[in-house]
Amino acid sequence: MDFNELCLGCRTYRRFEQKEIPEEILTELLENARVANSAMNGQVLRYVLVKSQETVKKLQPYFHFAAALPKELGQPKEEEQPTAFIILCTEGPETPWTGIDIGIAVRTMNLNAYIHGVGSCIIGNVEFEKVKEILSIPETWIPRLALALGYPSHKSSLVELPEDGSIKYYLDEERQYYVPKRKQEDISIIR
């Protein structure tokens, strides 16, 4: 798979097969995030990998998926939930670039997972205080973002913007996702 195929295929997935992700893939995601670029080499990010199925199941109620859809459509049902989570935390003083580091790390893991056929959903709508308590995350680690992981059980396709210009993603009758994207010429200036 070339990089263009990787970027086109690596969509947000919200429903997953209930198949465990091999340990070596999860370890690879953490390692590649660890060595990713970091502003001023600050290395303020910390990671909590949740792979125990018992713990993953316990955390599910605190992760809120697809806020743009009605809950019954956007929230994965019990037999479609992620099989692992990575919680991205910060530790120590934050800088104006901390959010950029978080973005670089989560996109590194997101693309890395997809190379192995593992889908993901980047989630900010998480009840992090409850998650932090359940996982006994150190007090100095501040959860900022989460990555839900699993083998996708649905398709997610890019489509052109509709006539009304809406960028809202939507589902068809089989619950497959469609994500409108603006055209390159509408978002870029080339001189």
Q: How would you describe this structure to a colleague?
A:
- With 191 residues, the protein is of the alpha+beta class.
- The protein has 7 helices and 7 strands; from the N terminus they run ααβααβαβαββββα.
- It has helices at 3-9, 23-34, 53-59, 71-74, 98-115, 128-135, 184-187; strands at 45-50, 84-91, 119-123, 141-150, 156-160, 170-171, 177-181.
- The strands form 2 sheets. A 4-stranded antiparallel β-sheet has the order 1-2-4-3, with helices on both faces.
- A hairpin with a 5-residue loop joins β6 (170-171) and β7.
- α2 (23-34) packs antiparallel against α5.
- It is globular.
- The two termini are 31 Å apart.
- The mean pLDDT is 95.
Keywords:
single chain, 7 helices, four-stranded antiparallel beta sheet, globular, alpha+beta, 191 residues, three-stranded mixed beta sheet
Distance between the termini: 31 Å
Total count of strands: 7
Main beta sheet: 4 strands, antiparallel
Question: Which outline best applies?
Answer: globular
> What proportion strand?
15-25%
- Integer-rounded radius of gyration: 17 Å
Quote the average pLDDT.
95
Q: Provide the structure class.
A: alpha+beta
Low-confidence stretches: none
The topology string of helices and strands comes to: HHEHHEHEHEEEEH
What fraction, in percent, of the residue positions are helical?
Answer: 25-40%
Strand order in space, largest sheet: 1-2-4-3
Oligomer: single chain
Count, helices: 7
